[in-house]
Amino acid sequence: MLKSEDVFYENESPEMMKELSALGKLTAHTPVYFKAEIIISFLKNHSLKNKWIEANPILAELMISGTYATAHIESLFESCRWRKDYLLAYENYIKAELFNPKKA
Which of 52, 59, 78, 99 has the greatest number of CB atoms lying within 10 Å of its CB? Predict the structure, then answer.
């Protein structure tokens, strides 16, 4: 359980880091249209906006298919749902990892 003073440190979640690295590699070939929004929204809420699906159906289908192991990423989203600063830092970390050209 997260405490109010907790902040996001990626090295405290090595399994999440492995999942995110694999997800980044597996989605690197997909179009960039709403990429961050699709991945974060699906992992956080299991929901996608229709305009995102229409703009990037390949990525939307990959996320919906459940092909990727994301249990640790999703669990961390659930545990920090009400910690706004932590959640923002976590989402920013995910965006940075997914769009880091050195990782692809």
Answer: 59
